[in-house]
Amino acid sequence: MKRFESLLWKLVIIQFIFLIIAQWLILYTPLHLYLGKVYEYEGVSKQEKTKTIETTVDH
Questions:
Q1: What's residue 5's pLDDT?
Q2: Domain count, the chain
Q3: Max intra-chain CA distance, the chain
Q4: What does the alpha-carbon distance between residue 28 and residue 20 come to, in Å, rounded to a whole number?
Q5: 57 in a structural domain
Q6: Can you tell me the distance from the alpha carbon of 37 to that of 45, in angstroms, rounded to the nearest whole number?
């Protein structure tokens, strides 16, 4: 069990290091210009309201 716990802690630390590296790449490098376009494709960046139609279904 102790061997499994040490392996799990190593994986957690490695995951945390990769998280910090990925955050740094996105925030402080020109890479964010290419990743920022993903929001435009998904339609998240625009804050305009769309016209909605409510429908009811009677059974």
A1: 95
A2: 1
A3: 61
A4: 12
A5: no
A6: 9
The Cα–Cα gap between 23 and 28 comes to: 8
CA distance linking residue 53 with residue 55, whole number of Å:
6
Q: Considering the domain boundaries, does residue 6 fall inside one?
A: yes
Q: Residue 30 corresponds to which tokens in the numbers above? A: 């020109």
- Compute CA distances 9 → 1, 13, 16, 18, 58, whole Å: 12, 6, 11, 14, 56
pTM of the model: 0.52
User: Each residue of 17-44: pLDDT tens digit?
Assistant: 999 998 888 788 787 777 656 656 655 5
Domain limits for position 23:
2-33
Give the whole-angstrom CA distance, residue 27 versus residue 33.
10
